[in-house]
Amino acid sequence: MKSYIFLLATLLVSTFGYSQKTIYQSDSFDELSKDHKTVAIIPFEARLELENKDLSDAQLEKLQEKEGYEVQNALETYFLKMHKRKDYRIEFQDINNTNAILSQEGIDLLNLDIYTTQDLCKMLNVDAIISGDLTLNALISEGVSTDFDLMSFVSGTSDYGRIAIKLSDGNTGKLLWKYEKVITRKSGKNTYDIIEAMMRKSTRKFPYDK
Question: Whole-prediction pTM value?
Fold first, then answer.
């Protein structure tokens, strides 16, 4: 009986976990990206839905900005580490340079959405952009609990939010690749763990792999 319950629980968790992620790759990826040489990772747009937090608009804005930059940083760390193993056919622009150029152009997370992919790629002198957004009910950059019970996991009450990572072509502005995933207590204990785990478990390899 215990073995049956364990098997059922494993199947439920596996099925639920699988349904929580969505991966898209454009049929035109190879054609549109064939001449890509440099990709920029820009800060992510973050939306915080925190309970029991008495925050002013300015404080909330600051925290959202922090989470957005933390994901940008975590993605750069992941890609640079994987670059040594997989030898991507493109280079990633240093995020310090990316953020400096955006700042010089008067662009921040408050007005980033009014610029097109083509606008941003031209400013940054890159061929494509990795961008994204996240909705969170916890500050994952400060660390979160990874403890959970089966029922809370299956019901979704252990979820911390959702993240979407997008790769867009700088010439056409078209979406080339997207990975969207629910962030749960199984995802990791902080931003870096979560990013590494979700990218590593992607059912399709990152499309710039050689």
Answer: 0.78
